[in-house]
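Notes continue from the previous slide.

Worked example: a multi-chain complex. Inputs as given:
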Amino acid sequence: MSLDEGFFARVYALVRRVPRGRVVTYGQVAAMLGVPRGARAVGWAMRALPEEMAARVPWHRVVGTGGRISPRRGPGPEIQRRRLRAEKVAFRGGCVDMTRHGMLYESFARSERASV
DNA sequence: CAAGTGACGTAGA
DNA sequence: GTCTACGCCACTT
């Protein structure tokens, strides 16, 4: 498997920096990595997140556009909601209230650039 | 190299 | 508001 390097690793490295109580969208992550339309690839990366990395990568802070929790088989979505709620993230309907918890693309991208 | 796969996003109906 | 149909991308086979 080549998941230790390449796009996936970059996705993990970025997601790892999302602060508690905040969320980012798949599209934002892709855009920040220089692939404006790679949202789907980011989803693929999250799906392939190795178990041992799950502890270091706050995957639950990655949501779909509009704060939607991407449906998939298994308890994933449920766990994700629980973890977010544990971080005091507010939900509106079934979606994360992005106006409160969504990361601003600009500031996040800027901090990333500065830290690299 | 070609085809298949999905934790996406958007436009339409 | 919901549901469908495509396009997109990285990665696998």
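Summary box: The CA atoms of residues 13 and 61 of chain A lie 13 Å apart. The beta strands of chain A are 24-25, 62-63, 91-92, 95-96.
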